[in-house]
Amino acid sequence: MKPTLDIEAEVQGLLAQGRSKLEVLKALDGKAEREEVEFFLKQTPYPALKERFKLLNAALLLSLGYVTLKKFYFALSFGSFSVFTLIALVVPTINIYLFNEVRRFRRMGYELLAVLSILSLLNAENRAFPEVALMPMQALMAGLLLYKLFIEPDKQRPWKDYS
Q1: Do 49 and 154 meet the contact criterion of CB atoms below 8 Å apart?
Q2: How far is CA 97 from CA 47, 54, 81, in A?
Q3: Domain regions of the chain by residue span
Q4: What CA–CA distance (Å, rounded) separates 132 from 29?
């Protein structure tokens, strides 16, 4: 079996050639484990859709980057390194992970960002301007991109029923 990075690159390469997800699954049937191929097919959108929604994705990345830098600045504003600094660095660390996933157009990044953006409004510091406007906007953009890049094209999922 091939290493995971090779499988991911091969799936992306075959999708870039214009093949459907079912064709990619059939092409990699004996070369890699089926579960890994299905995972990457589920996580990867079609390249044409990436190109179509790259501006909306860039706007989402700018918003997430702004919030991450603001939270990082807040975490380092305590003046000394302490337990509170470590606790305050949890949010920017998660945001950096989400930024990387959204930058790579991965399904998991959009799912987590939509949920965590809404949940972040439970924190009192996020109920002030501009976070009170940015968080719902991030959730809406992440949800829209999740729907347009993954849910809508894969509604029928013929590649999932292939045996």
Answers
A1: no
A2: 22, 19, 23
A3: 4-44, 50-151
A4: 47
Length of the chain: 163
pTM over 0.85: yes
**Are 140 and 125 a contacting pair, CB within 8 Å?**
no
User: CA 79, CA 85: separation in Å to the nearest integer?
Assistant: 9
One pLDDT digit (tens) per residue for the chain, 163 residues:
556 668 889 999 999 999 988 888 888 888 888 889 899 999 999 999 999 999 999 999 999 999 999 999 988 887 788 888 888 899 999 999 999 999 999 999 999 999 999 999 998 888 889 989 999 999 999 999 999 999 888 775 555 555 4
